[in-house]
Structures are given as structure tokens and as C-alpha cells.
Write a structure and sequence with these properties.
Blueprint: E1 5-11, H1 17-25, E2 28-35, E3 38-46, H2 47-54, E4 63-68, E5 71-82, E6 89-96, E7 103-112, H3 118-121, E8 126-129, E9 133-138, E10 147-150, E11 159-161, E12 172-173, E13 185-190, H4 209-228
Parallel strand pairs: 1-4, 2-6, 7-10
Antiparallel strand pairs: 1-3, 2-3, 4-5, 5-6, 7-9, 8-13, 9-12, 11-13
Length: about 230
């Protein structure tokens, strides 16, 4: 499988926070390349090239062709460090990939046919997502971009579990390898909660001064009549 994404890199010797800040001012991103039983290398990446790739969801779970010193090698984006306030990429971790070694990757879940799901269209339910990604293990050559979950036949009150998701050949769920206890529901169709509308009772009209005064006057009159008697 040919790589869809590419990155150009250069080796770097100047390390430390000060050097990293200088690189970012030059529109370069510090990175590290490790794995495959070889030493870790400090690199720099082109910011514009990285930013363009990061706009696509598939890039985060893809085999990337890295060009370094005129040679190509396959790598995987293992981690990104971003600025906490600006969302700017501060550092990148890349892992070397070997075609004969399985890799463990977290892939996004893509839910299909939600609007025509039986429990939604026929029974008036709504879909609740319990998971947005899944951890899988496979060889690099069969790594999918995402895992699809078809919701078309799911009825009201039913759930889709990890074990019922159809995985591509050669791809296994890492979580299921831990035992049946990890066969969690990833999506369900539930009945929407009814919205109760309670009409406020009309507030009682407050007593007017005239009404209060009238009662007091009546009471005073009765008392006067009693005294007169």
C-alpha cells in the first residue's frame, strides 16, 4: 500500500527550548523519530506541509512517507504536542514502521446510516454514541483509515457492541483481546426523553387596600355595635 501522505524532514543538532523557539519562528516544527530498534533522531518538519496534512482526519491514522536526506521511510504519527492556548503544534513524535511488525493504533469510528436506522426512522428513537474511536492491531499494509459501523438495522433499545463490528481482514480489536468483559457497547438507540410542559397556575390576586380596609371597617363596626349593646 503506497503512502497517501508525505513529510519532508531535516536532521537537527541544536536542542533545547531556545532552539525549538527559533525553529518555530522559522516556520519549522521540532520532531523526534524513534522505533524499529534504532536510535531516536531529532528532526525538523516544514510547518506548512504538516499543517496541510493535519487538516485531514485520515492523516492521524495513516502510514506516512517521510523523506530524510533524500531517502524515504515509512513512519506513523504517534503524538502531537500543541500550545495550550493557541493550538499551535509545538512538537511531533513520529514512529518508524516495519511492514512485518504489527502496530497498535487508535482509529476513529464512522457511524453509517444513522438517519435511516430502524430504531430512528420507524420507532422514533435517537442514537447515543458511547465511543468515538477504537484501538486496533494490524500490519501496516492493511491499516484502514477508520472503522465503519452500520446502524441501519439497529432497533429501538438495541446496542452495537465491539464484538459485532465488522473489522477488515487482518485487523483485530485490541480491547476484545482482554476478554469478554471489555465487549462494551459503542452505540445505542434510545427513546428520547419526553419534555414535560407544566402550565403555571395563575397567581392569586393580591388583596387591595380597599378590600382590607373594608374588612377592618366592618370588624370595627361590629365591635362598636357590641360595645353599644
Amino acid at each position: 500500500m503506497s503512502a497517501k501522505y508525505t513529510l519532508d524532514a531535516e536532521m537537527r543538532d541544536d536542542l533545547g527550548k531556545g532552539a525549538s523557539r527559533r525553529l518555530r519562528r522559522e516556520n519549522k516544527i521540532p520532531a523526534v523519530l524513534y522505533g524499529a530498534g534504532r536510535p531516536a533522531w531529532s528532526l525538523t518538519l516544514k510547518e506548512f506541509q504538516l499543517a496541510r496534512n493535519l487538516q485531514e482526519e485520515a492523516f492521524y491514522a495513516a502510514i506516512i512517507e517521510l523523506t530524510l536526506d533524500g531517502k524515504q521511510q515509512k513512519v506513523f504519527l504517534r503524538d502531537l504536542q500543541r500550545h495550550p492556548a493557541k493550538e499551535t503544534v509545538m512538537h511531533v513524535d513520529l514512529q518508524r514502521v516495519r511492514d512485518d511488525v504489527e502496530m497498535t493504533v487508535v482509529l476513529p469510528l464512522h457511524y453509517l446510516n444513522e438517519d435511516i436506522a430502524h430504531g430512528v426512522k420507524i420507532e422514533g428513537g435517537q442514537i447515543m454514541h458511547n465511543a468515538v474511536d477504537i484501538e486496533i492491531t494490524c500490519l501496516p499494509g492493511v491499516l484502514p483509515e477508520a472503522i465503519e459501523v452500520d446502524m441501519a438495522d439497529i432497533k429501538l433499545g438495541e446496542s452495537v457492541h465491539l464484538s459485532s463490528v465488522k473489522l477488515p481482514e487482518g485487523v483485530v480489536s485490541t480491547q476484545l483481546s482482554y476478554g469478554e468483559d471489555h465487549d462494551q457497547p459503542i452505540a445505542s438507540i434510545i427513546m428520547p426523553k419526553a419534555v414535560e410542559v407544566i402550565e403555571d397556575e395563575a397567581p392569586e390576586a393580591p388583596e387591595t387596600e380597599s378590600e382590607t380596609g373594608g374588612d377592618d371597617a366592618a370588624e370595627g363596626g361590629d365591635a362598636a355595635e357590641g360595645e353599644a349593646e
